[in-house]
## 1
Amino acid sequence: MPHLRRSALAGLLLAVVPATALSACGFDYPTDRVNTIAGGVNERSGDVDALGIRILATAQGEGRLIGSLSNNLREDASLESVSSTAGVVAGAFDPIEVAGRGFVNLATDSVVPLTGNFTAGEFVPLDLTFSDGTTLSLDVPVVKPCFQYTQVPTDLPSASASAKGGDSAADDATESAEETHDANFSCADEAPSPGGEAH
């Protein structure tokens, strides 16, 4: 009888110990977490997600907001204002409507001009305020109009009436950088290849 009890106890331990160890598995997998690989900053704490947000600088202290807005609600929402505590000011823009469960690409659908104390390579604190009263606070990277950004229109309301966009913006940025010796805006370097070497 004692032998049977010891066998039963050993069998119970063999069943309980692995079950206890394995109960820690299956929770909070890294693949269950949001991991957006993007050049900009992402903020998903509000009803409207701000994704890949960047400032595309066309010159020192001048640029536009790019990235995208994704509405998680069934009701429409809109981006009402963009502000900063770092001396960056948004120019006039109409509220940017984001339909319920909809998506807006700020690089192609709307222009939010920005001016102030920033240049390419820096990070700027921005507050995005929406129609529901939610404000998203972001540290936004400033990029120059080179490589993948050459196709983003850079015509700003404060700029000249003649629209400049695409490769001409990159050419202008390079010429301006060469004239002022501002390496921050130079597009002279070749875009890196996927292998890490210039092509």
## 2
Amino acid sequence: MAAGADSPELGSLEAKIMRVAWDDAGQYLQVRDVLSRLEDDLAYTTVMTVMNRLHDKGLLRRRRAGRAWTYKPSSTREAHAAATMADALSVAGNRTAALLHFVADLDPDEAAALRRLLGGAPEPQSGGSA
């Protein structure tokens, strides 16, 4: 997966670039496209270097478009979030305790969705109110 246990967390600029890439996940973007969407006053070469590093980490795919590289995410934002959660869980001394802490912080709708996904509650009924 894109963010393995040996991959460090995303830095601030990496996270901003990935947000831009995920927002346009269906298409390859040039460095200048990403640069124009970032609100920071950054040099083209800075963004290019970070995008190359994200490619090296497996978070971005790239292909040639003329003389320039174009990039798009290797996975969805949600798949990356799941991989990040799995990485965090892998370093917990007590995985069950870590999961309990995670679940305790869920809001009621998220907890209900998790129960449904795990098969512990029926799907919500559409239509009238109870």
